[in-house]
Structures are given as C-alpha cells and as structure tokens.
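Fold it.
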Amino acid sequence: MGEHTVREGSFRHRGAELFYEEAGHGPLALYAHGGFAGRAAEDRMGLFDWAPVVAAGRCLVRYDARAHGRSTGEPVAGDYTYPSLAGDLLALLDHMGADRPVDAMGASMGCATVLHAAVQAPERFSRLVLLVPPTAWTTREAYARHNRESADTIEREGVDAWLAGRARAPRPTVVAGVPDVPPTPDERVLPSVLRGLAQSDLPPPAALTRLRLPSLILAWADDPGHPLSTAETAAGLLHAELHVSRTRADVRTWGERVAEYLSRPRL
C-alpha cells in the first residue's frame, strides 16, 4: 500500500479466527480474495494493485477467508460454501462497526462471496466491484466435479500429487507470467475447502436481477475457470458495467479503474 500504514486485526466467528487489515482512511472499501489464496499470497502474485483505491480516499479492508492465509478453519465442507463465506464477510462488517453501506470488491471466490453477501443483506452495500466471476450456472457442474476429484486425490495421494497435476494444466495467457503460489489452506483442510466450493454456485439469476446495486465487472479472456459467459450474464442481470482484459498490461489498470469507479458521485 505504498506509504500508507497497514493496521491489522482479527476477530472470532463461528469457531474460526479471521485476520484482516486496513489501509488508508475514509469510507470503507472491502476486498475479498480468490480461492486458495490470501492477502500475502495475492501480494506475492502481484495481480492487483489496490494502492489507487487507498489514494482515492478509501479505507481499504482486506481479509483472509476462513482457512486461507492466516485465518483458521476446520475440515468441514459446509464452512466453505459461498453462502457460508458470505456470512463471514457480513460478520467482519459487524466487527468493524460498519453502520452505513460499504463498497465491496471480490475476485473469483471473493466475487461469489460478495454477491451472496449482497443478496443476503443488500442494505449493507453501496456498490459492488466483481473481479473474474467464477464458473456459474450452466458451466458449474464440470468445475464442481473437478473439485470433488481434487479433494479425493489429496486424501488418497497427498497434496503434492494434486499440485503436480495443477502445474501441468495450461494457464490463461493473461496470467501466464504471474507467479504460481501454493494454496494457503493446509492439507488437513484443503479437501473440505474444495468440496465446499463444489457445493456452491453464484446466486440464481432471479436474485441478481432483484439487486439494485451499481456494479462494475472486471473479467479476463480465455480462462475456463472464469469464463466470459459468467461475466457477461452477470453484467446483464445486474445492469453492470463490464470491462474485459486480454493482456496482463490491461489487468494492471484494474486498481485505477476501480478507484475511478468508486470515486464517481452516486446518482
């Protein structure tokens, strides 16, 4: 976050200790990371630069999802479904005393977490920024099947066998140069995380249609795990702005795009 001091904290919710950090001052802008990552892992990957959001006068809050990063978690698949993770996000807002609607951002698993939280409690949010929406609806079953097979592999052969298979899989061009960071959930919990995600989907289209929250969707091309079909369908349902990146250089502009979007006056 550049010259901005980062303030760290934690709180307990449903049997886990969840760690978070704040940078900057001003209205809250909450960010939820992608699956298997965490704050430190995303920093090492260097995918997203949130400094422009802080510079635009926001208090940026990032947290480690349950069992990710420094946060703790148990091997219970139901704890890692999208609606359950959304409950953790809402509990963080309670812990921080957020008494007015906040802007919320999320990538992949975090995108799904934010959407479910917004459907559960739309009055808690003012704007949504949805990065790389994951497989959903018609494309979800193949992903879920792969996750269940991955969980079985880890339990049968160990996490290294699963990681070796992951390393052989082709990567989208837009993230080809991004460092491959190992999953942050430990081997004891990782199969439960995979199975919880396999049980999940984005909220049904009708629920998104009812959301009346301004939204920006940032997607990238040629990634089966985050297909443009999800981003395009969600954009239509939410009446959201959609930006699609096809190069790593364009993804580097996302922090500035988000800061500009959140700085616009609300109509």
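The chain has eleven helices and eight strands.
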